[in-house]
Write a sequence for this structure.
C-alpha cells in the first residue's frame, strides 16, 4: 500500500493540527467538491450509492486513455461532514492513475486523527467512499483488460 503525495500532505496537515482545529479544517474540504457533471446529474443511474454513509451519497469515476481517474461525487450540502470526506478523497486522489488509487491504504483516514472529532459511524462513511471507489476502479480496469 502506498499513499500518494497530495493525500499524504492532507494527512499530515490534519495529524499535526490541534484537536480544536480539526473539525473546522475538515468542513473546509466540503467546499472542494466540484459540481456533478451534467451527464451524471441527468442520469443518476450512472452513479453508485455509498450505503456506508449516513446521508445519500453517490459516486462515479472515469478513467481516461492515460489511465488517470476523474472522480465525481454527489452529496447534499446539508451533509457537510460527508461532503468534507468527499472533498478529502477528491483533493487527495482525483487525477491519479487507477493503480495509485488502488494502492491507497484503506484506513488512511485514521492517520488524520479524525477520531478526536468525528464519530466511528461517520468515519465508516469515508471508508465506504474509498472502498466503493476502489471497487469501481478495479471493475473498470478488468473491463478494459477483457476488451
Amino acid at each position: 500500500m502506498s499513499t500518494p503525495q497530495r493525500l499524504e500532505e492532507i494527512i499530515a496537515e490534519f495529524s499535526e493540527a490541534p484537536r480544536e482545529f480539526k473539525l473546522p479544517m475538515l468542513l473546509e474540504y466540503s467546499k472542494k467538491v466540484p459540481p456533478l457533471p451534467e451527464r451524471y446529474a441527468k442520469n443518476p443511474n450512472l452513479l453508485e450509492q455509498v450505503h456506508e454513509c449516513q446521508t445519500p451519497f453517490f459516486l462515479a469515476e472515469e478513467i481516461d486513455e492515460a489511465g488517470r481517474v476523474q472522480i465525481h461525487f454527489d452529496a447534499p450540502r446539508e451533509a457537510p461532514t460527508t461532503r468534507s470526506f468527499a472533498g478529502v478523497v477528491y483533493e487527495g486522489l482525483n487525477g491519479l492513475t487507477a493503480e495509485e488509487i488502488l494502492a491507497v491504504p484503506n484506513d488512511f483516514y485514521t492517520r488524520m486523527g479524525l477520531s478526536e472529532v468525528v464519530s466511528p459511524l461517520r468515519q465508516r462513511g469515508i471508508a465506504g467512499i474509498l472502498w466503493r471507489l476502489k471497487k469501481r476502479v478495479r471493475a473498470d480496469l478488468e473491463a478494459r483488460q477483457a476488451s
